[in-house]
């Protein structure tokens, strides 16, 4: 069994004025393995936020089951066990910090868990160092940049020593620098502490760096696989008005007009490497007048 | 700009006063404020003023900060002292028409002025040397006995913490909304009272809406971090009184005793 | 003549206090009527301070802003009329909605201009159409709409004032790819139909490359570059030094060129294809 298991879950809620129930999730099954870095893509309303909230029992599915570390999220007696293991970071960095001092905010989670004071102190320091915000521990959150605030929010989760962090569009409100800070932090946590990451994002360049990509559409999984497997389906993604990295699109369209490019490049380096042999052949051919 | 308003103007430091247990600081401040009013003559009041001066110097906070907080209430000080000038008996020093100033009036005015200034300086020491979180934390602990009366002490303290956390955020937001409405031609600088009140609607409604959105987000974030009220909750920072606090308490008791003694041996100024 | 011009424009926050900080220093730019200008620069580079001076929300510490050749602060009492001519859409503009209905909210700007009732409604409806808001939404409360729809209502609220210059501060921030594409193409259509001047502030170099005629690069309070989009994005090294990047496709062509291949520059995938296909065409096609 995977670390998080969603088994055929559905989710719907009553719309006050509409006659029918609004279906957000229409039967989704997926597993998240321990130590994975998963990117969840999809438009607003595709159900990706909803599914993320079922992973830490913030929402319970209308149908189907979600298991976290073999615990049923519907079992209320293990509610805080689940929330300690699976932390959730939200989009707006301003709205999820509780205290007026950085280190006291990070301590909020462990304090709720009833951990002894010396142990909280140790965890808070460690968490702040892990997100490289230790020097800011006595600052007021409102004076920090968006990227820094979001890293404090991540530290607040880490201090609860979770197995998995789910992030609901954590970079949507950040500038490019803040986005890089947050993404680098997540990769470091995944690599060095083995923390499972589920990253919900609209940015394809963030998804490209993940180990696995899941694309949601209208409450269902549209496609999933390695970034190469997913982004090579340019036609499918375009049809659903989802973005494809420019390099991938370039390679795809060159292939479409008949050029023989290997693989599915996702980065500039990969694309250049794929184009170079063809360019060499063409320019050398020209030099020798060989058409 | 609205953003420049600062609340809970904590000035970090490592002085003797900073290091005192916030519970002790709150209680001493409270007792001192009471005794400023208990002191009925210059002897007693000056004893306290000397103590306050000592505390100001010990706090390591630049004296200019204290002047700033005095400046803010300068009007109140002048107003009350001028008012007191005309009360009281004694030798007439100056008179004009029915109005006269007596030596007793001057004494009254000086006395009241020292009283107000001491009061302000005292409360400033508390807010300058104690962080907002320390304050709410200490209040929560001091009020703990009230739990027996079913007062929701933890919830009140949590509300104070959150309020303090969001004040700067909401001020910044107000600034942004004002700019946005001004860019749409909203006129907030002219017109009569009613017109100006009406001009606030485009600012207040978005502010309310966003506050609710923030509250919803925050509640969710708190639940995600296993918040379930004060039950079984621990604190990272444990407050414990040290020998420093014992010194502070002893000094305070001596000063208060001195004030009482002065009241007994010297005549009162105000009648 | 330029529609908007700045002369030695400088803005200092908290002047005379210990926290004094110059956000924008000695900016001299001229924007022609009908241009589509992209403004880039990372947070703290001074872009926000600059654009807020262009419509008189901030008053320059020194220097002037000329609108149609006239100093906008010549008569400070008339500054509101400048804001009608230079419209400004802030970041996350949906947070400024407050009226009972969508139509009333869009009409707030034109209403402040002192126009007649019919004219106000006409403008509000036209603006709603520009941003693709359906008729049936106009009588709804703006708070019932989806995030993307709210954003469009807010933008319509500024368009309805029919400004000569429209400044948009990251209008697509936080939208999903579909919402972003739709909004961006609506802005382009609006520009083409009205022929007015647009300043688009964005962190997305791909969006800037797709839309702008010229690009203003802000760095540390200065106008570091102000040139055609091609020329600006040709300076990938300089931009990277300022913590900015160029579109992925532009970078690829630059890398290939640096390696000695005879390729030109490209701002979009289409342009890159136009460059690469003839070049690669020599003996590489499967169907040859």
Automatic annotation (TrEMBL), chain A:
GO terms for cellular component: ATP-binding cassette (ABC) transporter complex. One of its GO terms (molecular function) is ATP binding. It is a peripheral membrane protein. Its main location: membrane. It is found in: Cell membrane. GO terms for biological process: cobalt ion transport. Keywords: ATP-binding, Cell membrane, Hydrolase, Membrane, Nucleotide-binding, Translocase, Transport. Coiled coil: none annotated. PROSITE patterns: ABC_TRANSPORTER_1, ABC_TRANSPORTER_2. Residues 4-243 form the ABC transporter domain. Pfam families: ABC_tran. The keyword ATP-binding applies. It comes from the Bacteria. NCBIfam families: cbiO, ECF_ATPase_1, PRK13648.1. Probably part of an ABC transporter complex. Responsible for energy coupling to the transport system. Belongs to the ABC transporter superfamily. This is ABC transporter ATP-binding protein.
From TrEMBL, chain B:
One of its GO terms (cellular component) is plasma membrane. Its main location: membrane. The chain crosses the membrane at residues 24-42, 74-94, 106-128, 197-216, 243-266. The keyword Metal-binding does not apply. Pfam families: CbiQ. It is found in: Membrane. It comes from the Bacteria. PANTHER family: SLL0384 PROTEIN. This is Energy-coupling factor transporter transmembrane protein EcfT.
UniProtKB/TrEMBL annotation, chain C:
Its EC number is 7.-.-.-. GO terms for molecular function: ATP binding; ATP hydrolysis activity; ATPase-coupled transmembrane transporter activity. Residues 4-245 form the ABC transporter domain. It is found in: Cell membrane. It is an enzyme of class 7 (translocase). PROSITE patterns: ABC_TRANSPORTER_1, ABC_TRANSPORTER_2. CDD domains: ABC_cobalt_CbiO_domain1 (cd03225). This is Energy-coupling factor transporter ATP-binding protein EcfA2. It comes from Caproiciproducens galactitolivorans. The gene is ecfA2.
């Amino acid at each position: 069994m995977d670390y998080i298991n969603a088994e055929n879950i559905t989710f719907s809620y009553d719309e006050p004025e509409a006659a029918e129930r609004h279906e957000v999730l229409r039967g989704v099954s997926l597993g998240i393995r321990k130590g994975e870095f998963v990117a969840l893509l999809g438009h607003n309303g595709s159900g990706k936020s909803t599914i993320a909230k079922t992973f830490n029992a913030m929402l319970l599915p209308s149908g189907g089951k979600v298991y976290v570390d073999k615990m049923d999220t519907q079992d209320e007696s293990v509610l805080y066990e689940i929330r300690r293991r699976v932390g959730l970071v939200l989009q707006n960095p301003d709205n999820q910090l509780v205290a007026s001092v950085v280190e006291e905010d990070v301590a909020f989670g462990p304090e709720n868990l009833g951990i002894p004071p010396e142990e909280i102190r140790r965890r808070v320091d460690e968490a702040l160092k892990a997100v490289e915000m230790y020097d800011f521990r006595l600052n007021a959150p409102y004076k920090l940049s968006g990227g820094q605030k979001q890293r404090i929010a991540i530290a607040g989760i880490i201090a609860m020593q979770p197995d998995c962090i789910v992030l609901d569009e954590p970079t949507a409100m950040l500038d490019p620098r803040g986005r890089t800070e947050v993404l680098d932090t997540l990769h470091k946590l995944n690599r060095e502490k083995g923390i499972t990451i589920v990253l919900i994002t609209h940015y394809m360049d963030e998804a490209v760096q993940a180990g696995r990509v899941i694309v949601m559409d209208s409450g269902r999984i549209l496609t999933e696989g390695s970034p190469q497997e997913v982004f090579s389906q340019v036609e499918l993604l375009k049809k659903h008005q989802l973005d494809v990295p420019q390099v991938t699109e370039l390679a795809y369209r060159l292939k479409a007009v008949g050029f023989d490019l290997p693989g599915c490049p996702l980065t500039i380096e990969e694309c250049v490497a794929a184009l170079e042999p063809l360019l060499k052949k063409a320019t050398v051919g020209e030099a020798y007048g060989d058409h | 700009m609205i953003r420049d308003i600062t609340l809970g103007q904590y000035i970090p430091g490592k002085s003797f006063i900073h290091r005192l247990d916030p519970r002790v600081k709150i209680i001493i401040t409270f007792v001192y404020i009471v005794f400023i009013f208990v002191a009925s003559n210059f002897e007693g009041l000056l004893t306290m003023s000397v103590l306050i001066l000592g505390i100001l110097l010990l706090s390591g906070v630049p004296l200019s900060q204290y002047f700033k907080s005095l400046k803010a209430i300068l009007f109140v000080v002048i107003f009350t002292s001028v008012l007191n000038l005309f009360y009281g008996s004694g030798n007439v020093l100056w008179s004009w028409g029915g109005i006269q100033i007596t030596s007793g009036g001057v004494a009254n005015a000086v006395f009241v002025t020292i009283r107000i200034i001491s009061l302000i300086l005292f409360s400033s020491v508390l807010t300058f040397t104690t962080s907002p979180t320390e304050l709410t934390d200490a209040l929560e602990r001091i009020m703990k006995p009230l739990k027996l009366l079913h007062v929701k002490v933890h919830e009140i303290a949590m509300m104070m913490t959150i309020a303090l956390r969001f004040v700067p955020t909401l001020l910044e937001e107000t600034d942004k909304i004002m700019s946005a409405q001004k860019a749409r031609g909203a006129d907030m600088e002219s017109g009569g009272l009613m017109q100006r009140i009406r001009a606030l609607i485009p600012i207040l409604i978005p502010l309310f809406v966003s506050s609710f959105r923030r509250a919803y987000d925050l509640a969710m974030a708190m639940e995600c971090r296993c918040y379930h009220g004060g039950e079984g909750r621990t604190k990272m920072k444990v407050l414990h009184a040290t020998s420093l606090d014992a010194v502070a308490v002893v000094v305070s008791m001596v000063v208060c005793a001195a004030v009482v003694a002065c009241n007994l041996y010297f005549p009162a100024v105000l009648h | 003549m330029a529609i908007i011009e700045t002369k030695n424009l400088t803005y200092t926050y908290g002047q005379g206090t210990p926290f004094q900080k110059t956000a924008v220093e000695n900016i001299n730019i001229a924007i022609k009527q009908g241009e589509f200008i992209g403004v880039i620069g990372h947070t703290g580079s001074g872009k926000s301070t600059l654009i807020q001076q262009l419509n008189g929300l901030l008053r320059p510490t020194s220097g002037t802003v000329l609108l149609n050749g006239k100093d906008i602060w010549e008569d400070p009492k008339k500054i509101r009329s400048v804001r009608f001519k230079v419209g400004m859409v802030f970041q996350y503009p949906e947070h400024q909605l407050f009226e009972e209905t969508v139509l009333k909210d869009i009409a707030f700007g034109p209403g402040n201009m002192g126009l007649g009732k019919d004219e106000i409604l006409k403008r509000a409806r036209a603006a709603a159409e520009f941003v693709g808001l359906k008729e049936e939404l106009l009588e709804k409360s703006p708070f019932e709409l989806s995030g993307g729809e709210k954003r469009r209502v807010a933008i319509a609220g500024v368009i309805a004032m029919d400004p000569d210059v429209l400044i948009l501060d990251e209008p697509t921030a936080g939208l999903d790819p579909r919402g972003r594409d739709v909004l961006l193409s609506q802005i382009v259509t609006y520009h083409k139909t009205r022929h007015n001047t647009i300043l688009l502030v964005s962190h997305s170099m791909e969006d800037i490359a797709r839309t702008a005629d010229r690009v203003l690069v802000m760095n540390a309070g200065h106008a570091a570059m102000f040139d055609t989009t091609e020329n600006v994005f040709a300076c990938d090294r300089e931009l990277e030094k300022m913590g900015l990047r160029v579109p992925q496709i532009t970078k690829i062509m630059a890398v290939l060129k640096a390696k000695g291949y005879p390729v030109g520059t490209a701002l979009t995938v289409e342009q890159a294809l136009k460059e690469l296909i003839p070049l690669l065409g020599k003996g590489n096609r499967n169907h040859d």
